[in-house]
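Review form for a predicted model. The reviewer records the input and the model, then writes brief findings.
Reviewer: anonymous (R2)
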Amino acid sequence: MNIIYKKFLFRVGTETANEAKTIAPYKTGNLKKDIKVISYSHKKVIVGNTKLAPYAKFVHFGTKPHIIKAKNKKVLAAKGKIFGKKVNHPGTKASPYLKNALDSYIKGEGFTRAKSALANEVKNMVLNDIKKAVKS
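Model under review:
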């Protein structure tokens, strides 16, 4: 029975990851490419980003206002603009693309089909077990 649940959760994870790739912010870069099923078992599935996009957690959960200080240079600079030794960053708004993808998937037809496939597999397994028991 565990193999059936494991297969079901892998399907849910894969389809959720595909949904997340369509709604994740940023059209370029590693964030979208890196969304995948990280692990799965008969009890749970983990979908997310790996070390290819280490900034993913900041995109997903957002950041609070914070101070950025120059570490290895005298001043902070970007694109030819000099900011000084430290900058007050206003923080970033959360963009929970993984949670939103799961919510969207669960409300959609994909999850309904996955549940039906799971129910059919369980039904067939039970029927086969009954047939074997009757023959014995």
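Findings: The longest strand covers residues 36-40.
Further findings: The mean pLDDT is 93.
Recommendation: see findings above.
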